[in-house]
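lol ok so funny story. i was supposed to be doing the assay writeup but got distracted and ended up predicting the structure for this chain instead. priorities right. anyway since i did it might as well share w the group, maybe its usefull for someone
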Amino acid sequence: MKRYHIQILVIIFFFSVATKANTAYKIGQKSLTYVDATRNRPLDVEIWYPTTDNPSEQRVKETRKEIFQTIRTIPNASIPDEKFPILLVSHGTGGNRFSLTWFIKSMVEKGYIVVSLDHYGNSTFNKIPREFVKWWERAIDIQFVLTNVLKDEKIGAKIDQSRIGGVGFSLGGYTQIALAGGYVDRDSNRTKLPELPPEFPEGEEEIDFEKDPLILASYKKYKDLVKDDRIKAFFVMTPAIGFGFHSKEQTKDIIAPIFIVAGKGDKNTPTPYNAENYHRLIKTSTLYLFDAPVGHYVFLNEGTEFGKKILPELTIDPPKVNRKAIHKETIKLAEDFFRISM
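and the output, tada:
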């Protein structure tokens, strides 16, 4: 009889542990702005984190039409007294800190703190021509934000500092590769600036991107400061700036694992010159390619009906591409990668 009771208790214990492990957290959200005074660079930041709080039944009525689907969060919710791994998310050129909420939602529910930011001068509502080509300064943004988040009285104490990961899309993918130790060589004769992206802002000032003194000064000052050893693993989606990487000498300092995901149908950052080029040059990389016609913007949030009407190039995929299914598979790849790598 005693042995029977012990067996029952063991079954109950493991059932309760399994139930807890399989219970998704809800999503807390904190908005703030950090200012890097040394560069006169304000950085708008969202911290998304696990919570067991229950959301209010009353939902705020939308005051504007959304282009992309949004997620439900609990502003300034409590955070459990545990240690969580953290992911730092870098958006694509002209994007913003909400561009990858499909990814953020899933990872927070699995028990990650996720920090996303607007890169100064290269985000949806803050476009400055020079900042579109000062790619290396994005890595400095991430470093500055990470340092400040670790100091945050509420969030910092709940972060497992041995488990810090980076996530990026497009130009944000390059940003994470830079943080891993990848060195973009803008001075090489082989590095030719491609056509400017469609997100590039129109302006009255004409800028010579190869000779502009402010761009050259930034490159000289920050090009050797992009690596951040605090970040232990990197998951990058359809990374850009492959045209600036030509030899393994530029990636020899990368020792952290990097998982590269892209679509063979990408016309914005074609995989042979970007994802596949990075994989060839980075000895610690793994490459996963979705079949054609999976393209570039499939890694953005799903579009609303309104968004599909006014911005079809970002929200509508080819007929045989299911954005939600691509997201689901990408999340599984990321979960498995981070679980093993950090």
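Confidence is low (pLDDT under 50) at residues 1-22. The domain at 2-54+64-187+207-341 is CATH 3.40.50.1820 (Rossmann fold).
back to the writeup now i swear
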